[in-house]
Amino acid sequence: MTLQEARQLIWQAERINLAVLAIYAQPNRTRDYLLVIEPAEGDKLVFADAMKAHLALSQLSGKDFRENLRYFALGDDGIPRECDAEGWIMDSPHRKAIEISCSPHVSAAIHFVGLATPGSDEKALRLWAVNLNLATEVGSFGTDLFGSFEEANAFVSKYKANGCPVGSALLRWKRRAVH
Question: Environment class of residue 102 by beta-carbon count within 10 Å: exposed (0-12), middle (13-18) or buried (19+)?
Answer without folding.
Answer: buried
